[in-house]
Design goal:
Length: 587
C-alpha cells in the first residue's frame, strides 16, 4: 500500500489534472514518471523470428482501479460523463464519484470486499456504470450478466462468479427473485429506477444514494494485489462449450490503458470537450463494457442507449455531435441500408471503428465512401485478451484487423505448434500483459486455452503480410457469431438432445449478410417419433436467450456426419446448408 500512497503523493505534486489529462487518454501528451516499470517480453523460445513483438510498453498505471477512478473522476469533476439518450438524464464525474462511493460504502457494510463478486443484470443505463464503479471502489470483482439470460442460463453463469449482490433493472428483477433461492451466496438484490420495489427484501438503489451530492473525501478503497486480484469476470464461450467466466485482473486493465496511452492517439484528438461516444454495445459484453469504462477514464461523454432504435441512435449522433462510432458490424449494416439514415446529416463523424465480429473489405470501403470519414477500421480481440490485441489504428489496409499492440506478442502456428512466416495460414496465438488470469473455477479449460509457456490459443485462423498486418481467415473453434454475440453450438446441441423426439443434433452458423451468422440445427429424429421444424425452434426459444434461437432453420437428416473419433464434421454441414439455401433462393 505504501507504493500507492507514494505514487499518489507524487501525482499530487505534478497535479492530478495533469496526470489524468496526459495519462488517462485525453490528448495523450508525453508523460514520464520516474522509476516506472516497463513490460518486457522475455521467455524461452520467444525470440523466434516468426514471433512478432509489439513495441515496448511503458507501465504507468499500476495502481488498483478503485484508486485510479478516484483520481480521474476528481480530475474531470464537472465533465458530463453519462447521458441517457431517452430520458436525457445526465451525470457529471463528481456526481458519479459521490454516488459510487456511497454505494461502495453500502457494499462494504454488507461484507462485500476483495475476493467477492457483484453483478448487474440490466439493459444499458446510467446506473449500470455507477454500479461497476462502486464495485471497483469497494475492491470487489464486477461480473455483469446478460439481461436476456433465462433462469436456466442464469443458474450456470451465476455459479461461476457467485455474486453476493446483484443490481437489477425493473425488467429483470422478477427473474432474479425467482432464482435467488437456488443461489445461497446471493444475499442482496438492488433495483434500479424510481419505482419502489415490489418486495421488502429488495433494496432500491435510490434509497442508498438519496441526497448524496458531496464526495466523501475520507473514503479509500481497500488494499489489493493488482496482478492477482480479479477486477472483472465477463462471460465468454472460450473455444467451445457453455459460457465461461473470464477473469481479468486490475493489472490487465491497467496494461490496456497504458497501451492506449501509447498507441491510440486518435481516440482523443478532438479538442471539443463535448467529444462524445455512443454507448450502444451491451455493457455486459466485453466490447461494450470496455468502451463504457474507458470513456469514463477519458473523462468524455457517453450517450447511453438502452436498446437499439435506429431513430434514437441517429438522433444521438447528431444531437451530441458524435465524432467516432465504436460498434459491431450489424449496426454498420443498418447505417448503410436503412432509408432513415439519408435524412440525417452525419458529416460530423470522423471515424468508424468496428469490433466483436468480422467486417468485410467491401463494407469498409462502402462506409468510407458513403460517410466521408477519415478512418474506417476494425480490430481483433477476445474477452480473454481484455479487449483488442490487433489494431488497425489508421485503417491503413482494407480487410485487415491490424498489427500487434504495444507490449504483446503474436504468432501464427501450424498443427505442430511451429510459428509460421508471412502469408502462411495457421492458428493465431497471443502472449503478454493483456492475457486473462484464467477461467473462474475451471482450471481444465484454462490449461486448454493458455499453454505452459503462457500463449493463449484463440482457435482462429489468420495470416500476416510483409508489413505485419493480420487478416482473419476462418475459425478453428466452433463458435457462431450472431450480431457480435457468441453462440456455442455445444450448448444448443446439448439442449436439443434432451428432446424426446431427437436422437442426434448438430448446430452450425449459416452465413448471413445482416447478422454475420444464423444458428442452424441439423436434427436426426428418434425412430418412430415425429417433430416439426417449428416445434424444434420453440423448444430452443423456451429455454435459451434470443441470440441462440434457430434463426437459420432446422434441417432433418438420417445421420449427422462425423469423423472416426465421433467429432461432428461441421464444415461438411456448413457446405450442405449453403447449398440448400442457394437452391431455395432460386425457387
Amino acid at each position: 500500500m505504501w507504493n500507492i500512497y507514494r505514487r499518489l503523493h507524487y501525482l499530487k505534486r505534478i497535479s492530478i489534472y495533469s496526470y489524468c489529462k496526459n495519462v488517462c487518454f485525453p490528448r495523450m501528451a508525453n508523460f514520464n514518471v520516474p522509476n516506472m516499470s516497463r513490460y518486457e517480453l522475455q521467455s524461452n523460445g520467444d525470440n523466434d523470428p516468426n514471433i512478432l513483438h509489439g513495441s515496448e510498453l511503458e507501465r504507468i498505471i499500476d495502481m488498483p482501479l478503485g484508486d485510479l477512478l478516484i483520481l480521474v473522476l476528481k480530475a474531470h469533476e464537472e465533465n458530463i460523463l453519462l447521458v441517457d439518450a431517452f430520458t436525457k438524464e445526465e451525470l457529471t464525474a463528481r456526481q458519479l464519484l459521490a454516488k459510487s462511493i456511497e454505494v461502495a460504502k453500502w457494499l462494504r457494510a454488507h461484507n462485500v470486499t476483495v475476493g467477492d463478486s457483484v453483478s448487474v443484470n440490466s439493459e444499458n443505463r446510467i446506473e449500470f456504470a455507477l454500479a461497476s464503479v462502486a464495485t471497483l471502489l469497494a475492491g470487489a470483482t464486477f461480473a455483469p450478466l446478460n439481461p436476456d439470460y433465462t433462469p436456466a442460463e442464469l443458474k450456470h453463469v451465476m455459479s461461476l462468479s457467485k455474486p453476493k449482490v446483484v443490481f437489477c433493472s425493473e425488467s429483470t428483477i422478477g427473474k432474479l427473485v425467482s432464482v435467488k433461492q437456488n443461489h445461497p451466496y446471493l444475499r442482496n438484490l438492488v433495483q434500479f429506477g424510481p419505482n419502489r420495489p415490489s418486495l421488502p427484501e429488495i433494496v432500491a438503489l435510490d434509497d442508498i444514494i438519496q441526497g448524496v451530492e458531496k464526495v466523501d473525501e475520507s473514503y479509500h478503497p481497500p488494499e489489493l494485489d493488482t496482478k492477482e486480484t480479479v477486477a472483472t469476470i465477463l462471460c465468454s464461450s472460450g473455444t467451445t462449450g457453455l459460457p465461461k467466466g473470464v477473469m481479468c485482473t486490475h493489472d490487465n486493465m491497467g496494461a490496456f490503458m497504458d497501451m492506449g496511452r501509447s498507441q491510440l492517439l486518435e481516440l482523443a484528438y478532438v479538442e471539443d470537450p463535448s467529444d462524445a461516444t455512443v454507448g450502444l454495445n451491451p455493457f455486459f459484453h466485453s466490447f461494450g463494457f470496455m468502451v463504457m469504462f474507458l470513456n469514463l477514464i477519458r473523462g468524455k461523454k457517453l450517450v447511453v442507449l438502452r436498446k437499439f432504435n435506429i431513430k434514437l441512435f441517429l438522433d444521438a449522433i447528431v444531437d451530441y455531435k458524435i465524432r467516432r462510432l465504436m460498434v459491431p458490424p450489424p449496426v454498420l449494416i443498418v447505417l448503410l441500408k436503412h432509408p432513415l439514415v439519408r435524412k440525417y446529416d452525419l458529416s460530423g463523424l470522423l471515424e468508424i471503428r468496428s469490433g466483436a465480429a468480422a467486417l468485410s473489405k467491401d463494407m469498409e470501403r462502402e462506409l468510407k465512401e458513403r460517410f466521408k470519414v477519415k478512418t474506417v477500421s476494425q480490430s481483433y480481440g477476445m474477452t480473454e485478451t481484455t479487449l483488442g490485441v490487433l489494431m488497425n489504428v489508421h485503417g491503413d489496409k482494407l480487410g485487415s484487423v491490424g498489427t500487434i499492440v504495444a507490449g504483446m506478442m503474436v504468432k501464427v502456428i501450424n498443427d505442430k505448434g511451429v510459428p509460421l512466416g508471412p502469408y502462411e495460414e495457421g492458428e493465431v496465438c497471443f502472449k503478454g500483459p493483456l492475457i486473462m488470469k484464467g477461467y473462474v473455477g475451471d482450471p481444465k479449460a484454462t490449461a486448454e486455452t493458455i499453454d505452459k509457456d503462457g500463449w493463449l490459443h484463440t482457435g482462429d485462423v489468420a495470416y500476416y503480410d510483409d508489413e505485419k498486418f493480420f487478416f482473419i481467415v476462418d475459425r478453428l473453434k466452433e463458435l457462431i457469431k450472431y450480431k457480435g454475440f457468441q453462440v456455442a453450438p455445444a450448448e444448443v446441441e446439448g439442449l436439443l438432445l434432451t428432446h424426446p423426439s431427437i436422437r442426434d443434433a448438430a448446430v452450425v452458423g449459416l452465413p448471413d449478410e445482416d447478422a454475420g451468422e444464423l444458428p442452424l440445427a441439423f436434427v436426426v429424429k428418434r425412430e418412430g417419433k415425429e417433430v416439426s421444424e417449428e416445434e424444434v425452434k420453440k423448444f430452443v426459444a423456451d429455454t435459451l436467450s434470443h441470440q441462440k434461437q434457430l434463426r437459420g432453420g432446422v434441417i432433418f437428416l438420417k445421420e449427422i456426419p462425423r469423423n472416426p473419433t465421433g467429432k461432428i464434421l461441421r464444415r461438411v454441414l456448413r457446405e450442405q446448408a449453403k447449398k440448400l439455401v442457394t437452391v431455395k433462393s432460386k425457387l
